[in-house]
C-alpha cells in the first residue's frame, strides 16, 4: 500500500451531471487501487460532513462535475475540513466555472475567444424576447451557440443556425441554468487540451481531436460509446499543435488553476485557436478526453492520479499553503 494513507474519491452529487461523475469516480478509484492505494469511493451526500469528521481520510480526489463540483462549493467544504485535495482552490474554481468571467480573463491575455453576450432569463421577460433575440443576431450573426454561463457536459447547449431556432434554444438553456451565454459559432477543428501539474509546473498533454457523428459534440456524443470519433494526437501540424498547447497552459495559469484542467478549443480554417471553455474537473469516464490524452502521452492514469494526490498532500503541509 502507498504511504498516502486512505484516499477518498468523491463522486455523484446532485447536479445534472451526477451519472457522469459516478462513472468518473469509479474509474479513478479502480485505477488508484491498481497502483496499490487504499481507496474509498463515496457519494457527496447529506452525510458527507459527518463522515469526514468521524473518519477523516488522508487526502481527497473530488470528481464531482457541474454545480457543486466545479463551482468551488465542494472545495470550500474540503478546506473547512482541513483536508488536502486534488484540484484547484475554491476561488479559482468559481472563476473558471463562470464562463463569461473566464473568457474576459483569457481575452485580456491575448487569447482569442468568440464574441458573446450574456443575458439572464428575467431580461427577456422584462424587455421583450423578440427585440432581444433580434439584437443578438444583429450583433453576433448566425450561427450562434447558446449555453448556460455556468455548466458542463454540453447540457442546455444548442447550435442555432436560424433565428427561428433561437427561442427554443434559450428555453433549453434556461432549463439547465442561467444566465445564458450566446456565443458566435466558430467553424473548424474541435480539440481538447488537458493540462496536468504534479509539482513541476503545468504541461499540456497531446490534444484530442473530436469528430462527433452527429456533427455536434453534445451530451449524447460525449458519453455514448461510438457516437464520436477521436484522434489522439489531433491531426494538427506541429505549429498549430504547439499553439493550442500554449493556449491551454496560458489559460490554466491565468485562471489560477492547479493540478489538472481541460481547455476546449476550436482551430479555425486559418489555424487560429479559439478558446471555448476551461474545465477544472475533467471527466474520467471511458469516453472522456483527459484519459485519452494521458494514454497518448504514454502515461498511466492510476500513476498520474497517485502523483496528483501526493502533490496535494505536499502542498497541504506547506507553511503558507492556501486552500
UniProtKB/TrEMBL annotation:
<keyword id="KW-0479">Metal-binding</keyword>
<protein>
    <recommendedName>
        <fullName>D-alanine--D-alanine ligase</fullName>
        <ecNumber>6.3.2.4</ecNumber>
    </recommendedName>
</protein>
<dbReference type="InterPro" id="IPR011127">
    <property type="entry name" value="Dala_Dala_lig_N"/>
</dbReference>
<feature type="domain" description="ATP-grasp">
    <location>
        <begin position="103"/>
        <end position="310"/>
    </location>
</feature>
<comment type="pathway">
    <text>Cell wall biogenesis; peptidoglycan biosynthesis.</text>
</comment>
<keyword id="KW-0133">Cell shape</keyword>
<dbReference type="InterPro" id="IPR016185">
    <property type="entry name" value="PreATP-grasp_dom_sf"/>
</dbReference>
<dbReference type="GO" id="GO:0005737">
    <property type="term" value="C:cytoplasm"/>
</dbReference>
<keyword id="KW-0460">Magnesium</keyword>
<dbReference type="InterPro" id="IPR011095">
    <property type="entry name" value="Dala_Dala_lig_C"/>
</dbReference>
<comment type="function">
    <text>Cell wall formation.</text>
</comment>
<keyword id="KW-0963">Cytoplasm</keyword>
<dbReference type="GO" id="GO:0005524">
    <property type="term" value="F:ATP binding"/>
</dbReference>
<keyword id="KW-0547">Nucleotide-binding</keyword>
<dbReference type="Pfam" id="PF01820">
    <property type="entry name" value="Dala_Dala_lig_N"/>
</dbReference>
<dbReference type="Pfam" id="PF07478">
    <property type="entry name" value="Dala_Dala_lig_C"/>
</dbReference>
<dbReference type="GO" id="GO:0008360">
    <property type="term" value="P:regulation of cell shape"/>
</dbReference>
<dbReference type="GO" id="GO:0071555">
    <property type="term" value="P:cell wall organization"/>
</dbReference>
<feature type="binding site">
    <location>
        <position position="264"/>
    </location>
    <ligand>
        <name>Mg(2+) 1</name>
    </ligand>
</feature>
<dbReference type="InterPro" id="IPR005905">
    <property type="entry name" value="D_ala_D_ala"/>
</dbReference>
<dbReference type="GO" id="GO:0046872">
    <property type="term" value="F:metal ion binding"/>
</dbReference>
<feature type="active site">
    <location>
        <position position="153"/>
    </location>
</feature>
<feature type="binding site">
    <location>
        <position position="279"/>
    </location>
    <ligand>
        <name>Mg(2+) 2</name>
    </ligand>
</feature>
<keyword id="KW-0961">Cell wall biogenesis/degradation</keyword>
<dbReference type="GO" id="GO:0008716">
    <property type="term" value="F:D-alanine-D-alanine ligase activity"/>
</dbReference>
<keyword id="KW-0573">Peptidoglycan synthesis</keyword>
<keyword id="KW-0464">Manganese</keyword>
<keyword id="KW-0436">Ligase</keyword>
<feature type="active site">
    <location>
        <position position="17"/>
    </location>
</feature>
<feature type="active site">
    <location>
        <position position="288"/>
    </location>
</feature>
<keyword id="KW-0067">ATP-binding</keyword>
<comment type="similarity">
    <text>Belongs to the D-alanine--D-alanine ligase family.</text>
</comment>
<dbReference type="GO" id="GO:0009252">
    <property type="term" value="P:peptidoglycan biosynthetic process"/>
</dbReference>
<dbReference type="InterPro" id="IPR011761">
    <property type="entry name" value="ATP-grasp"/>
</dbReference>
<dbReference type="InterPro" id="IPR013815">
    <property type="entry name" value="ATP_grasp_subdomain_1"/>
</dbReference>
Amino acid at each position: 500500500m502507498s504511504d498516502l494513507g486512505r484516499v477518498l474519491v468523491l463522486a455523484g452529487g446532485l447536479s445534472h451531471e451526477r451519472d457522469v461523475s459516478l462513472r468518473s469516480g469509479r474509474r479513478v478509484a479502480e485505477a488508484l487501487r491498481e497502483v496499490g492505494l487504499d481507496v474509498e469511493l463515496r457519494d457527496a451526500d447529506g452525510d458527507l460532513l459527518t463522515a469526514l469528521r468521524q473518519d477523516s481520510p488522508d487526502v481527497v480526489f473530488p470528481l464531482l462535475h457541474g454545480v457543486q463540483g466545479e463551482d468551488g462549493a465542494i472545495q470550500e467544504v474540503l478546506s473547512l475540513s482541513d483536508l488536502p485535495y486534488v484540484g484547484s482552490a475554491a476561488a479559482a474554481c468559481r472563476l473558471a466555472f463562470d464562463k463569461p468571467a473566464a473568457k474576459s480573463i483569457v481575452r485580456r491575455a491575448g487569447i482569442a475567444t468568440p464574441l458573446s453576450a450574456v443575458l439572464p432569463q428575467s431580461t427577456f421577460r422584462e424587455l421583450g424576447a423578440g427585440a432581444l433575440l433580434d439584437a443578438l443576431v444583429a450583433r453576433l450573426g448566425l450561427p450562434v451557440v447558446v449555453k448556460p454561463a455556468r455548466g458542463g457536459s454540453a447540457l442546455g447547449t444548442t447550435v442555432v443556425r436560424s433565428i427561428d431556432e433561437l427561442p427554443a434554444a434559450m428555453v433549453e438553456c434556461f432549463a439547465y441554468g442561467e444566465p445564458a451565454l450566446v456565443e458566435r459559432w466558430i467553424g473548424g477543428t474541435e480539440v481538447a487540451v488537458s493540462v496536468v501539474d504534479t509539482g513541476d509546473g503545468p504541461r499540456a498533454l497531446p490534444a484530442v481531436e473530436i469528430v462527433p457523428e452527429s456533427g455536434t459534440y453534445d451530451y449524447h456524443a460525449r458519453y455514448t460509446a461510438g457516437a464520436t470519433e477521436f484522434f489522439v494526437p489531433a491531426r494538427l501540424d506541429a505549429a498549430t499543435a504547439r499553439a493550442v498547447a500554449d493556449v491551454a497552459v496560458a489559460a490554466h495559469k491565468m485562471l489560477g488553476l492547479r493540478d489538472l484542467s481541460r481547455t476546449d478549443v476550436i482551430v479555425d480554417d486559418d489555424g487560429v485557436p479559439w478558446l471555448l471553455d476551461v474545465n477544472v474537473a475533467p471527466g474520467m469516464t471511458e469516453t472522456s478526453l483527459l484519459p485519452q490524452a494521458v494514454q497518448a502521452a504514454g502515461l498511466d492514469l492510476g500513476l498520474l492520479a497517485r502523483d496528483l494526490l501526493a502533490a496535494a498532500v505536499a502542498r497541504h503541509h506547506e507553511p503558507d499553503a492556501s486552500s
